[in-house]
Amino acid sequence: MNKAVSVYFINTFFVGALSAASVAITSANASVELNAANIAIADSASEDSVSADATGSKNDDISSSLQALLSGMKQFRAGFNQTVVDAQQNLVHEAQGKLTMTRPNKLRWETTFPDETLLVADGEAVWNVDTFVEQVTVLSQANAIKDNPIVLLTSTDEATWSKFSISQMSSGISTYNSATDINNDTALQSFQITPKEEGGQIVMLTLTFNQDNELASLNMLDAQQQISTLVFNNIETRFPVPADTFSVDIPDSFIVDDQR
């Protein structure tokens, strides 16, 4: 196992790393919101209050929509292709593997390329198994994903959801069928999630769902402006979960670095 890969994943996925397009859209949205705010200043206090109430209601609706989609993912298993680029769009890492999640709060991450890695979040702790140096690092799961929007993938806790702002985008991808000479528009739903408190390692998380309401891709922008993109394939949302899926069997020869 490449230790740097494992450490990178913990830092970006659990403590820290969205596509450039999402970043651009976010900037545009921020500009629109700023203009709207300037206009609102000129309105009366009562109008401002109505606008704030409407915005709050809309945000609640968007949050409820995302929660409904994720609640349908009590189980999620898929292969993935991951790419990571730096602020200058240079490729700094790529990987392939499998991700398994169940709600609430359990996740198993395995890579098969370029190295074999294993990371398990069992609901209480995060276990990073490094076979290259025969060491297992154990972190408190609550601390590892504190203020990280990735927690919403498996969390059902309303207090946790209240720590994040959520906005929604919809887009369509046209596909041409030469046999029927018809263009088909595939509807996608994307949700941008940002922590309400600044200072965390993850600046923004974007979740995109396909026409079957399955999580199709996941994008993260970290504080160092690195962009990590995971595109999922062979998606399953109903499957038997072996008892040892979210447990780690540690060989006697391995060193355990327990940082909980």
Structural class: alpha+beta
Radius of gyration: 20 Å
Q: How many beta-strand runs?
A: 12
The strands making up the biggest β-sheet line up spatially as 7-8-9-10-11-1-2-3-4-5-6-12
Number of helices: 5
> In this structure, how is the largest beta sheet organized?
12 strands, mixed
Order of helices and strands: HHHEEEEEEHHEEEEEE
Which regions have little confidence, pLDDT < 50, spanning 5+ residues?
A: 1-12, 15-42, 44-52, 174-178
Mean pLDDT: 77
CA distance, first residue to last residue: 23 Å
Notes on the protein architecture:
It is a single chain. The protein is an alpha+beta fold. Helices cover 27% and strands 41% of the residues. It has five helices and twelve strands. The protein has helices at 3-14, 20-41, 45-71, 141-144, 158-161; strands at residues 75-85, 91-102, 106-113, 117-121, 125-130, 135-140, 164-177, 182-195, 202-209, 215-222, 227-236, 255-258. The chain has a twelve-stranded mixed sheet with strand order 7-8-9-10-11-1-2-3-4-5-6-12, with helices on both faces. A hairpin with a 5-residue loop joins strand 1 and strand 2. It is globular, with a radius of gyration of 20 Å. Mean pLDDT is 77; it is low at 1-12, 15-42, 44-52 and 174-178.
Helices, strands, pairings?
Blueprint: H1 3-14, H2 20-41, H3 45-71, E1 75-85, E2 91-102, E3 106-113, E4 117-121, E5 125-130, E6 135-140, H4 141-144, H5 158-161, E7 164-177, E8 182-195, E9 202-209, E10 215-222, E11 227-236, E12 255-258
Parallel strand pairs: 6-12
Antiparallel strand pairs: 1-2, 1-11, 2-3, 3-4, 4-5, 5-6, 7-8, 8-9, 9-10, 10-11
